[in-house]
Amino acid sequence: MNVIQVEDVWKKFKIPHERKATVLDAIASTLALFGGRRSTFEEFWALRNVTFNVLKGRSVGIIGENGSGKTTLLRLIANVMKPDQGTISVNGRIAPMLELGLGFHPELTVKENVVVFGAIMGLKRDRLRKQIESIIEFAELRRFEDAPLKTLSSGMQMRLAFSVAVETDADIILVDEALAVGDMEFRKRCLTKFKEFKDEGRTIVLVSHDMGLITEFCEDAVFLSQGEIIAKGSASEVVQQYIRQVESQASSNPSIAG
Amino acid sequence: MFEHTDVIWILVKKDFKIRYRNSLLGFVWSLLNPLSMMVILTLVFSFLLKSGIQDFSVFLLSALLPWRFFSIGTMQATGSIAGNPSLVKKIYLPRQILVLANNLASFFSFLMEFVALLPIMMALGMRLTPALLILPALMISEFLIVLGTSLALAALNVFYRDFYQIWEITLQLGFFLSPIFYEAKIIPERYLLYYSLNPVTRIIESTRKVLLYGVFPSAFDVAIPLLAAFVVLAIGYATFRRLEPRFAEVT
């Protein structure tokens, strides 16, 4: 059964041309707001004709160079943006882990932040109240539970956010490479948790530059380049193709290779 | 939207805590502000300019409190989308939630201010009459006006940050164009129509009738703000919905 169906999706971005060089220009472009001339912009297709399916319980890696449209694709699936063309249908509840600690506020205490971020991630309030102890335990932050978040190191904040995020009961989990910024220990933890999700039959879509991770963890992969799908299918084959392409580009362009 | 009530309340609480945390006097500041305004304006208009208005302090506070809710509520909410890029870009929440939660926090501040200043107003000549029962209707109308205005401003602010400054100036003018330290009846007849377009005018006038004169406002006085509220809300919401699809690309 398909849980995510992406069909012929196109997404366009507008890149504005910054030309408010003088105060007069600034005023002119401000006035343009009221129906006059608008400042110029360039259109740019971030995704073109993207079609693929994700089967229930599978883990899919999305790979490609920077700017190839991976994050845009993830945002479209998360319903944060709308495609200009094509459809995306999602069958199940999504937990987008595109950024950890959404809504975190430095002045609030650790416990208060758990409640805010938990609610934003869609955890139910009555359940969250029970989970709060185990979340703080898991993050190993018992001593700090009533301290303002700003007194924690950034690593500790990550740990806390991660502990909240993994409490999700969503069927589909979207993970951005942003998670890879933690230390070794943290990465190991993430992986163990994601394997648990997998064993529970949940679907995971993972954006990463770590080819080892993709081949080890995902069954399928999608390779994007300049907004188009170059290859899709079994993770190991797609990763191979990606590596070949990067190498051939590097050899044909020695200035970058050097 | 209704499945998100949990998130809304948690965001309201968060907003509330942040407003008053790390300040020595916290909520007391929101009382000192209107009180100091009351003292200085009473001094100027009652003693220096001799406006001749009875119980000028109550006259003033009954207008100042709703005005503060309108100005602070809309001002704070203007940045509620643009100031939360990660909540717009990284997760899907109906974005109205951010504006609504912000407005609710301002609304509760307003109610607390109101309750805390009641004893002072009573000591200064406010009347405790059954007419007070009409206040919730006026407050709810004002809340809807604030919500509608905030939705439009928050959406526009995503695309042009100037709206923050534009609104700040508008509010400054609005303070003088609303019957706060004078009565609407001093406005010349031929300007009255334009003057009444300000949706806060009638709310202030009706609140004043209730608090100062202890009389029930006419049905007209209650119906007009409510009608205005729905018009403002409809326009604000339509603006918001029109601009919303591009929020994540711009913030």
Strand proportion of chain A, as a percent range, falls in 25-35%
**Number of helical regions of chain A:** 9
Radius of gyration of chain A: 21 Å
Radius of gyration over C-alpha positions of chain B, nearest whole angstrom: 19 Å
Determine the oligomeric state from the structure: heterodimer
Would you give an account of this structure?
- With 258 residues, chain A is an alpha/beta fold.
- Chain A has a single domain, classed as Rossmann fold.
- Chain A has helices spanning 23-31, 70-77, 110-120, 125-138, 154-165, 184-199, 211-217, 235-252, 254-257, and strands at 2-16, 41-55, 59-63, 85-90, 94-97, 172-175, 203-207, 220-225, 228-234.
- Chain A has a 6-stranded mixed sheet with strand order 5-6-7-3-8-9, sandwiched between helices. A 3-stranded antiparallel sheet of chain A has the order 2-1-4, covered by helices on one side.
- The mean pLDDT of chain A is 85.
- Chain B is mainly alpha-helical and 251 residues long.
- Chain B has one domain.
- Chain B is 74% helix and 0% strand.
- Chain B has 11 helices and no strands.
- Chain B is globular, with a radius of gyration of 19 Å.
- Chains A and B meet through helix 3 of A and helix 1 and helix 4 of B.
